[in-house]
């Protein structure tokens, strides 16, 4: 009986991939463990093995096809004696088939996933970050981060990148793709799995005059290194009476990815933002990822740069400029509105923007602010907005106790109390370790529905 | 391995020998004065004295060249004096005054001097080890031929990050001398009770790092070992470990009841192995100095130390606005949430 081979999910966040190469042809006999194809995911190019033995009846997807959705049939296996025609007719995937064969979108312009909202974000034309009329290109957050590092490495020989799998593997999440080829192994350095040690070596190298970019494969692993980040990187300038700064960047994905459980799904925004001596950036869009990372690498202070695995594959407009940077401490107003201020940062912005879209349909006009950096925070923009809307909802994925939202609420209360028509509501992740089950995980994070409810509560609708 | 002793006829000039005597004596007198000021309430917090261990830093500084770097833990006053930092600035930091190396914001455990390539002064046991390797990483990257002395104790030798660092220093051939100042007690826990191996320097072996044991009460032995280690690093052969057996006469910090060792043990070390007395004997027996010469050095040293104490008492406390400076290298507003 013919069986379909489906496009596999090869990473926690993979929704689609490129069928890079077939390693079998129709009519070949394969046994379990034979490599059928090379598939390029959002993270790497992987070999895809046969599970059962049989004969390759038909290849349904041509090699080189991009944007093949997970679970799309890509080939049909038949048994001895079965004909390819039997196989074709036994495949019930007429509609799926044509969908999969539809021309894929160009690379770097990946089709939106289920949670995707990049296509819905308001056009960022009215931006103070670049001159009007600047040419724009679509880029993923991942590519923008890579370009930021490459540009800064070209202009400053003392910038180098170190971390696990950053060189030969080209990044566990492909963020450092191509950097080893351009800059060589002196400047793109694979470390052993030893976060505490290499974080400390990075800090020492910054004391010694270099500008390290230390990648943590995820910020969950940076907890092994947090003593060096806090006690050595953040405090030495102060403890030395201004003699010894630590110009470096600690970067990597932060927060929940997808289905990786409690130890790999934590948002550290509030943790690092508490520490004087650190700067903290948490970009949402590709343009901000690029502009802020370039600023971070040039910054004379230690910078915590919190990326997000789910955002890596999202595409946004990025200005085509020789040297595009975004300053720290300057929020971005994604959407102007008069009824309520929704303030967020990083991936929290997806809930904020989605909620604002849906609220608009109900006649509620939300102003959406992306803080972009959490140290320093652009309090001015926030307070001005609250004075206008008289209501505020904060949105983040992190734990609710001691959250950024808690801090913003206190700040607003102290500085704009008389302007408030309702208490500030904090929408945050739930006060639980991240569960594995898909339904529980979704509920553990902040949801768009919760943001909408919060806005309705503060606007008394 | 027997600890390295100095050669029967050490290759140093009488002038050099006198300098080591002077340098070690300065540390001892300085530390005695610091202990005194602590008792008077002029120095606060933790204060870890270096008395007994003087030959370690003086011997290694004799093996260093201009531009070489050093980094250590919180028992750091001796290292600072040995690399030429101003006793006034060190003492005033101990008293938390404006004239201190960190403007009074670091204290005993956190002092630095860019000028003298002294990179601290670190309060977390073992944390300075990867930092020191990082300094060596930068030197390697910049190809400037410099070597970093990374000091840590027998206690820190049980921290995991030390071995993470050994591994990377070895694979990247970093020019770093790991100096284990083994004073035999990690705070109040003897090496026997805390450490699985008798010879800590052998722990570099599995990482491919050569090491040796050195008599840390013999400044000339330390210097010889230091020269060998530095030559190894400068030749591009990677890190080197020196385990220097030494002894601290005073408590771990000022509030140490010293129940973990006997008074006799300490007294025996003082009487039989004192590093300063050893050099004093060499100078007198070799006819390189007279009692009067040494008395003159003693007096000079006392004067320098007394002057540093005076400076440290006279220097004003830091201005209150110093609270808000040196947090960032650029102009970032602080405390917005409180005072806006």
TrEMBL record, chain A:
GO terms for molecular function: pyruvate dehydrogenase (acetyl-transferring) activity. It holds the Pfam family Biotin_lipoyl. Keywords: Lipoyl, Oxidoreductase, Pyruvate, Thiamine pyrophosphate. Residues 86-103 have a biased composition (Low complexity). Residues 83-136 are annotated as: Disordered. It catalyses: N(6)-[(R)-lipoyl]-L-lysyl-[protein] + pyruvate + H(+) = N(6)-[(R)-S(8)-acetyldihydrolipoyl]-L-lysyl-[protein] + CO2. Its cofactor is thiamine diphosphate; (R)-lipoate. The keyword Oxidoreductase applies. It is an enzyme of class 1 (oxidoreductase). Residues 2-78 form the Lipoyl-binding domain. GO terms for biological process: pyruvate decarboxylation to acetyl-CoA. InterPro entries: 2-oxoA_DH_lipoyl-BS, Biotin_lipoyl, PDHB_mito-type, Single_hybrid_motif, THDP-binding, Transketo_C/PFOR_II, Transketolase-like_Pyr-bd, Transketolase_C. Its EC number is 1.2.4.1. The keyword Oxidoreductase applies. The pyruvate dehydrogenase complex catalyzes the overall conversion of pyruvate to acetyl-CoA and CO2. Heterodimer of an alpha and a beta chain. This is Pyruvate dehydrogenase E1 component subunit beta. It comes from Salipiger pallidus. The lineage of its organism: Bacteria, Pseudomonadati, Pseudomonadota, Alphaproteobacteria, Rhodobacterales. The gene is pdhAb.
Automatic annotation (TrEMBL), chain B:
It comes from Salipiger pallidus. It is an enzyme of class 1 (oxidoreductase). Heterodimer of an alpha and a beta chain. Residues 23-319 form the Dehydrogenase E1 component domain. The keyword Oxidoreductase applies. The pyruvate dehydrogenase complex catalyzes the overall conversion of pyruvate to acetyl-CoA and CO(2). It contains multiple copies of three enzymatic components: pyruvate dehydrogenase (E1), dihydrolipoamide acetyltransferase (E2) and lipoamide dehydrogenase (E3). The gene is pdhAa. This is Pyruvate dehydrogenase E1 component subunit alpha. GO terms for biological process: pyruvate decarboxylation to acetyl-CoA. Transmembrane segments: none annotated. It catalyses: N(6)-[(R)-lipoyl]-L-lysyl-[protein] + pyruvate + H(+) = N(6)-[(R)-S(8)-acetyldihydrolipoyl]-L-lysyl-[protein] + CO2. Its EC number is 1.2.4.1. It holds the Pfam family E1_dh. GO terms for molecular function: pyruvate dehydrogenase (acetyl-transferring) activity. Keywords: Oxidoreductase, Pyruvate, Thiamine pyrophosphate. Its cofactor is thiamine diphosphate.
């Amino acid at each position: 009986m013919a069986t379909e081979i489906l496009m596999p999910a090869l990473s926690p966040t993979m929704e689609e991939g490129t069928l890079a190469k077939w390693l079998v042809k129709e009519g070949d006999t394969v046994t379990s463990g034979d490599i059928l194809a090379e598939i390029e995911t959002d993270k790497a190019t992987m070999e895809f093995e046969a599970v059962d033995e049989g004969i390759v009846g038909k290849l349904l997807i041509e090699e080189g096809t991009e944007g093949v959705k997970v679970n799309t049939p890509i080939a049909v296996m038949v048994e001895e004696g079965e004909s390819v025609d039997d196989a074709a007719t036994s495949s019930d995937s007429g509609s799926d088939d044509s969908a999969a064969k539809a021309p894929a979108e160009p690379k770097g312009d990946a089709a939106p996933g289920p949670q995707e909202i990049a296509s819905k974000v308001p056009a960022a034309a009215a931006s103070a970050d670049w001159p009007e009329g600047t040419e724009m290109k679509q880029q993923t957050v991942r590519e923008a981060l890579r370009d930021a590092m490459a540009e800064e490495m070209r202009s400053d020989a003392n910038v180098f990148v170190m971390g696990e799998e950053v060189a030969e593997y080209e990044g566990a999440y492909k963020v450092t793709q191509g950097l080893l080829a351009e800059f060589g192994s002196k400047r793109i350095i694979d470390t052993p799995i030893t976060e505490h040690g290499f974080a400390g070596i990075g800090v020492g190298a910054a004391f010694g005059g270099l500008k390290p970019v230390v990648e943590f494969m995820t910020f969950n692993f940076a907890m092994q290194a947090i003593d060096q980040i806090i006690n050595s990187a953040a405090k030495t300038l102060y403890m030395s009476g201004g003699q010894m700064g630590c110009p470096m960047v600690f970067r990597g994905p932060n927060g929940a990815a997808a289905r990786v459980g409690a130890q790999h799904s934590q948002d550290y925004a509030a943790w690092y933002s508490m520490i004087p001596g650190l700067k903290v950036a948490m970009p949402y869009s590709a343009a901000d990822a690029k502009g802020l990372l370039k600023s971070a690498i040039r910054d004379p202070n230690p910078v915590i740069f919190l990326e997000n695995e789910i955002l890596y594959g999202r595409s946004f407009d990025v200005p085509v400029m020789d040297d595009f940077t975004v300053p720290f401490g300057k929020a971005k107003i994604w959407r102007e509105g008069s009824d309520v201020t929704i303030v967020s940062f990083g991936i929290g912005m997806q809930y904020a923007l989605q909620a604002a879209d849906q609220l608009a349909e109900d006649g509620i006009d939300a102003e959406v602010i992306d803080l972009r950096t959490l140290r320093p925070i652009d309090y001015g923009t926030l307070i001005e907005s609250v004075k206008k809307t008289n209501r505020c909802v904060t949105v983040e994925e992190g734990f609710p106790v001691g959250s950024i939202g808690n801090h913003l609420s206190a700040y607003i209360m102290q500085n704009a109390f008389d302007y408030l028509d309702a208490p500030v509501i904090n929408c945050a992740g739930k006060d639980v370790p991240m569960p594995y089950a898909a339904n529980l995980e979704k509920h553990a994070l902040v949801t768009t529905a919760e943001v909408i409810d919060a806005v309705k509560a503060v606007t008394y609708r | 391995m027997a600890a390295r002793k100095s050669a029967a006829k050490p290759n140093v000039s009488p002038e050099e020998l006198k300098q080591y005597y002077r340098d070690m004596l300065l540390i001892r007198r300085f530390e005695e004065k610091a202990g005194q000021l602590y008792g008077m309430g002029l120095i606060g917090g933790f204060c870890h004295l270096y008395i007994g261990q003087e030959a370690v830093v003086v011997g290694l500084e004799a093996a260093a060249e201009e531009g070489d770097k050093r980094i250590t833990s919180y028992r750091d006053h001796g290292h600072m004096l040995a690399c030429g930092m101003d006793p006034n600035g060190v003492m005033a930091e101990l008293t938390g005054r404006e004239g201190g190396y960190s403007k009074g914001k670091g204290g005993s455990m956190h002092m630095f001097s860019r000028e003298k390539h002294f990179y601290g002064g670190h309060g977390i046991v073992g944390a300075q080890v990867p930092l020191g390797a990082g300094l060596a990483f930068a030197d390697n990257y910049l190809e400037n031929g410099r070597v970093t002395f990374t000091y840590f104790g027998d206690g820190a030798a049980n921290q995991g990050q030390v071995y993470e660092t050994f591994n990377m220093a070895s694979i990247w051939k970093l020019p770093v001398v790991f100096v284990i100042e083994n004073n035999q007690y990690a705070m109040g826990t003897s090496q026997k009770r805390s450490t699985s191996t008798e010879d800590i320097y052998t722990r570099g072996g599995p990482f491919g790092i050569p090491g040796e044991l050195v008599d840390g009460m013999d400044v000339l032995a330390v210097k010889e070992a230091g020269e060998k280690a530095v030559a190894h690093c400068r030749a591009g052969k990677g890190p080197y470990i020196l385990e220097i057996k030494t002894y601290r006469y005073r408590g771990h910090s000022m509030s140490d009841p010293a129940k973990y060792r006997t008074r006799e043990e300490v007294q025996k070390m003082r009487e039989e192995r004192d590093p300063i007395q050893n050099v004093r004997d060499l100078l007198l027996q070799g006819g390189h100095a007279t009692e009067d010469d040494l008395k003159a050095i003693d007096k000079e040293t006392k004067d320098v130390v007394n002057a540093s104490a005076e400076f440290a008492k006279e220097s004003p406390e830091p201005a209150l606005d110093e609270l808000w400076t040196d947090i960032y290298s650029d102009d970032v507003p602080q405390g917005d949430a409180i005072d806006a």
